[in-house]
Amino acid sequence: MTIGLASVAVSTASIVATRNFKRLLGYASINHAGVIAIGLGLGSSAGYGVLLYVLSNAFIKAILFLTAGKIEAYYGTKDTKQIAGLIKDLPYSGLFLMVGTFALLGFPPFGSFLGELLILSALVTSGQMFVFAAFCMLITMSFVATGRTIFPMIWGEPKQDRTWPAQSALGALHKLIFLGALLVLGIYIPPQINSLMTRVAHSLGGT
């Protein structure tokens, strides 16, 4: 649990400082690894939440890193200050970056929200109030820093007029599949998948 909290702290400081959007996603991965470590440190009470959080973040990272590669290919830079107006320049990429960032930050109705909520609940019920308070403070800082960096890229005014070819909806199909799986984990998990996840969580010491 200590290693997890330290990972969240280091990644939060890095997220605040960086201007490279691909590094920001990398630091967010460290942040999430820290959350998972905290959940594993709690043991039985957080097993299902940890599993849900792991699965959700796999889909989130797939969406965001694929989108980040497309953005870098078009703009030729990773500097967040040089990118603005994505929703106008690259509508599909801007939309996926926006939705992926909301999921990354733990907004409902995504599975990451429910997984994080279960881990936080386990912290409270196990009496780990110091870890709970530190966790909430660090997550809030990373939340604000990520939004401050990413959202101007999406909704800001474009730096210059561009004549790129229109994006194809077919090229976004794989990311739509990942997004659908992410929503399933947050809204309605089919009984067969839920049963499998429960058995896996039990094997981790969960209830």
Defining key terms:
207 residues; mainly alpha; 9 helices; globular
Give an overview in words.
The chain has 9 helices and no strands. It has one domain (2-203). The chain is globular and about 55 Å long. It has helices spanning 2-17, 21-42, 47-75, 86-89, 91-104, 111-125, 129-155, 173-187, 191-203. With 207 residues, it is an all-alpha fold.
How are the secondary structure elements laid out?
Elements: H1 2-17, H2 21-42, H3 47-75, H4 86-89, H5 91-104, H6 111-125, H7 129-155, H8 173-187, H9 191-203
Helix pairs in contact: 1-2, 1-7, 2-3, 2-6, 2-7, 3-5, 3-6, 3-8, 3-9, 5-7, 6-8
Order of helices and strands: HHHHHHHHH
Tally of DSSP β-strands: 0
Task: Return the average pLDDT rounded to an integer.
Answer: 90
Helix percent band:
over 70%
**In angstroms, what separates the terminal alpha carbons?**
19 Å
Overall spatial form: globular
Helices and strands: which structural class?
mainly alpha
The whole-angstrom Rg is 18 Å
Distinct helical segment count: 9
- The total number of structural domains is 1
DSSP strand content: under 5%
Main sheet attributes: strand count, strand direction, barrel closure: none
Uncertain segments: none
